[in-house]
Amino acid sequence: MNKIAIFASGNGSNFQAIIDETEQGKLNVEIEILVTDKPDCFATKRAKNHNIPVFSFVPKNYASKEEYEKEIASVLIEKNVSLLVLAGYMRLIGDVLLNQFRNRIINIHPALLPAFPGKNAIQQAFQYGVKVFGVTVHFVDEGVDTGTIIAQECFKVEGKETLAEIEQKIHAIEYELYPKVINTILS
Ligand code: GRF
Fold it and tell me: Which domains can be identified in the chain, with CATH numbers?
């Protein structure tokens, strides 16, 4: 079975959606490990609740990104992981992981790239007043949300919706789209 690693830094609700689909047999993967730069984040608790191993690290305890990515890479190689799934991982992936896992690292972004890359994408789009919101899954490269697009899904608004309503709708799309894309890539 295909082995995947999840990378997360925060709440981990996308991680949870992937766990749920896996446990329900809809997503045909083994979640080998959660990699996190925030040892106390809620994603870590979710991993523990589901007996998923965690590799957590504190970046400032390393001399460079290269140093901690070397450790991550060796753990992932040892576990025979074939896909790295970024789900709210708030760091740029560096050369060590990109070279080792080229075209095997994906990310989900809560906007229709190339519009609104980076942090707070939903708020950015809301403040801009866009009438079509959406979600993008893409391969990861050196840039901030710049890699080749794999899938997008969108919905229209009339302008009466609150930010909270839009956020909720975007997350609901993410929870369906990400597992679907993972299945497609791996099959
Ligand atoms: C998601 O909106 C995802 O698109 C973005 O970060 C958010 C992570 O949320 N990259 P969660 O940690 O999965 O709840």
Answer: 2-186 (3.40.50.170)
